[in-house]
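The instructor's notes for this session suggest beginning with a concrete chain rather than abstract definitions. Hand out the sequence below and ask the class to guess, before any prediction is shown, which regions might be ordered.
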Amino acid sequence: MGLMSRIGLVTQEPALLSLSIRDNIAYGRDVTSLQVEDATKTAHAHTFISSLEKGYDTQVGRAGLSLAEEQKIRLSVARVVLSNPCILLLDEVTGGLDFEAERSVQEALDLLMVGRSTIIIGRRLSSIKNADFYSCYGGRMPARTPNETSTFQIEKDSTLQESSSPKFTKSPSLQQASNLHTARSPDSNYNSYGSQKKIKNS
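After discussion, reveal the predicted structure:
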C-alpha cells in the first residue's frame, strides 16, 4: 500500500461527481449501503441526506441537485471516513463557512481526527486551536496563559523577516506541560520517573 493511499484529504471546495450521493461517497470502494450510512453519521451528514426526497439516491454534481458548501464538505468527510486513512490533510476546510456551519463541520472533523496524525492548513485560529504544534511564516507564534480560554491572536512582529522556512512552536497545552517540567528543580531524593527514592540509614 502506497503512502498516498494512507492520506485522506478534505478541502474547502470538494469536488462532487455527477452521480448519486451514495455513489459519490463510496466512489472507488467496494462498500455496502450500511457502511456508507455509518460514514455519513460520523460526518454529521446523515440527517440532511435523509431529509432529501430521494435520500442517498439524490443526484448531485453539475447535472444534479446543487448543495451548499457545508453539505459538500460533509460528504467529503464521509468519503474520507470510508477510506480510513492513517494521515489527514485538512486544507482550509471551514474557511468559507459562517460560524454555525463551521461549528457543525468542525465537530465532524474532530471525530475524524481521533487516532490519526493530522496536518491542518488554515487561516482561522478556531480550526487549529487544538493542534499540538503550530507553524507559520514570518510571524510571531501564538501564546496564551494556562487560564486563558479565549481565542488567542497571532501578532505580527515587524522585527522578524519572512523566511523560506516555517517557524514551529508547541501549542499552549504542551508549552504549559514543558514549563512545569523544566521549572522543577532537581532533587536527589527523586529519580527520573518522579517517584521518591528510598534512603537507607547507615
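Then share the key points. The chain has a mean pLDDT of 75. The beta strands are 7-11, 87-91, 117-121, 133-136, 167-170.
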